[in-house]
Structures are given as C-alpha cells and as structure tokens.
C-alpha cells in the first residue's frame, strides 16, 4: 500500500474459547483452511495443535501465491 500509516489487522475470535489441557474438540472453521482430520471427524473427537499449523500453512500459502492451495474455478 502507498500509505505509510497503513496497519494490518487480523482478528476473528467469535469461535474462540479457553480450554484446559492440550486437546481441543470443537470442529469449526472455514472448510478451505481446515485440516483434513478435522473434516473427517466432525463428531467432535479431540485434536491437537497440528490443525492450527495446517491453517497457518494455508494462510501463508495464500499470502505468498495470491490464491488458496486447493483452488478450483469449477
């Protein structure tokens, strides 16, 4: 952006929650960003931080390439 005072702000805490322990169990998120194991286990089985790393990878890919890694026009 040509403006020096531009700020990047990203936030979406509408589905956030604090939970004790390392395993989460709420299946939520945009399907294009969600890890495959989350989509396979929609009955709320516990999952770890790997699904967050997957989403971070998808977002990083979009920022670097300009389109989602699994994009299809049809």
Automatic annotation (TrEMBL):
Annotated ranges, domain Protein kinase: 1-74
Keyword annotations of the record: Kinase, Transferase
InterPro entries (alphabetical): Kinase-like_dom_sf (IPR011009), Prot_kinase_dom (IPR000719)
One Gene Ontology MF term: protein kinase activity
One Pfam family per UniProt: Pkinase
Xref: Gene3D superfamilies: Transferase(Phosphotransferase) domain 1
Superkingdom of source: Eukaryota
Alphabetical list of PANTHER family matching this protein: SERINE/THREONINE-PROTEIN KINASE (PTHR24347)
Protein's recorded name: Pregnancy up-regulated non-ubiquitously expressed CaM kinase
Organism the protein comes from: Mustela putorius furo
């Amino acid at each position: 952006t040509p403006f020096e005072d531009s700020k990047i702000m990203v936030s979406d805490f509408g589905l956030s929650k604090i939970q004790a322990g390392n395993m989460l169990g709420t299946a939520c998120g945009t399907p294009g960003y969600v890890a495959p194991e989350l989509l396979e286990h929609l009955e709320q089985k516990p999952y770890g931080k790997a699904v967050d790393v997957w989403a971070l990878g998808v977002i990083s890919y979009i920022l670097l390439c300009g389109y989602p890694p699994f994009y299809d026009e049809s």
